[in-house]
Write a structure and sequence with these properties.
InterPro entries: GmhA/DiaA, SIS_dom, SIS_dom_sf, SIS_GmhA/DiaA_subfam. This protein is 53% helix and 17% strand. With 190 residues, it is of the alpha/beta class. The protein has a seven-stranded mixed sheet, sandwiched between helices.
Amino acid sequence: MNSATLSGACERFAGVMTGIRSSHAGRVLSADEAIATLLDMLVTLRHADGSLFIIGNGGSAAVAAHIQNDLVNKGKLRAHVLHEPSLMTCMSNDFGYDQAYARLVRQYARKGDMLVAISSSGKSSNILQAVAAAREAGASVISLSGFAEGNPLSELGDINFWSPSGDYGEVEVSHLFLLHYVADCLAERT
């Protein structure tokens, strides 16, 4: 990241945000079109009293925990993160870290629910396994990734958002910014 000046870093981040690529059902969409589709899905989920599960590792887990607040408070959704420490370490110890989220998704997700899968690299095995488990349960999947275009996660969601950066900070902040925007828009819809 070019951090020589704050304005340089802001310009670079603006390029990441305007460069986000989105797809829905294998079709390339503008970010605005993808967000509009996602908002419709979230309103449907809210009216059906469905659950939204949000997962990530490291900084992406922090993004998941942060955005859960807004999706519950502003969005009026039944939003849950799945990385409560004692439960996550139990699942990891008993079934392996790559299966920890998948085990929890299989336990909690039901047909019509939604999984938001966040991975900067888009290659985290535990996230990919959880997406497969969500599909088995009949839940929809929203993916947020970065780094290499065409990474495995970037093609697995019903809606996919890919941030064009190889910098963890930029990708994580772009995901948080995008999800905050979605939560703010959702709060305006009944």
